[in-house]
Amino acid sequence: MEYYYSGRLSQHLLWLASLAGVVGLLASRALVALSPVAGVLAVLLNPHLRRDVQLYFRNGAALRAAAMVGFLLLSGLYTSEWAVWRHELFRSLTWLGVPLAFAAGVPLSGRQRWVVGTFYVLSTAAVGLATVVKYWLDPASGNAAIHIGQNVQAVTGVFHIFFGVLLALAAFWGAAMASRPREGLGWRLALGAAAAVAAAALHVLAYRTGLLVFYVGLLVCAGGLLLRRNLGLGLGLLLLLGLGPWLAYTQLESVQLRVNATLYDAEQFEKGRDLNNFSLSQRLTAMQAALPVIRQHWLLGVGPADTHAAMRDQYDWRSYGLKRANQADVHSQYLETLLGGGVVGLALWLAVVFWPLTQAWARRDAYLCLFILLQAATMLVTDVLSLQIGLNLFVFGYGFLVVAGERRQQEAATSASSGTAPLSFSRRA
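RE: above sequence
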């Protein structure tokens, strides 16, 4: 009973849920599904649940996440795709469960958060390295796939777009964690090596979205360093930003094939040729097809559950020469949200994504800023919430970094005003 009353049971369950979430993102959808369940169980086993559940209702990040579910419920008043709406409502429970776990469970200690971050960086780099080895064992097959706009599949079967984003996050987080002087030299070297492996894997495998996100992150980091007048590192990153793509293109056949295939793909769209075998052209066409629907339903959209049906109707009216199987939905989260939720839905989504950056405490958290900015860049070219792995990646990172960060900030402010130590169930908060 002491294990329960001390809060360690709840804390360890939340820790287990976080570690399971990392494994789930990389390898197992089952663990991703079970992770929020363990998180909610951690809340229920919090010995101070009556007190701490109030923190959920004072946590702005958690409430903005809950508003996503509220808007989906509201769209039920005008949706026509009831089966899809019910399915989306079930999926959206993640927006409630994960923030609740980090807002009302016994919070993780600083060491536990560090272990989760280290586990994420090292395991993501390991999967990336294994995938590179897979590519090197049969480069001809990998290059043939890249030549026609496809990708080398991760060894664990993770969808290539999000695996690229996972690698980019691992590269930046690993570098940031390796720079912490209070960690042991061995761990710092391991994290630095993992960051380098993740960045190298992105280039060798030529993941287009992952590389876009990686270089956007480099640009943001360089700009931040220059603004803080850290000229050495800032200019060094700008040099890497210029030399990196050039070196990758001149030294890696996979990158050459990816660039050439992308340029040829874009040329097909520009000249109005047959687009059926070109993924980028199909995405650009989908954006073009969505614009009339967005203009017609600009306030509340067609409904989050009705976007696929609305796009099918548009393609029935004008197919752009695309076969049914190649008629893509919108591959931009911002446009997808505008299509499904109109200006109201887009405003809510932008608040979820960018509101944390309006807070001073959040801007001081390098891991949080990197997560938000890299996810924001991903959303330009990918509808991250449409696939389960994209939804899980965003909501887990949002809960772990934003919701939990706001809770720590609130508890620190409360303790400062009352003159007491911050609440913690661990010796190392």
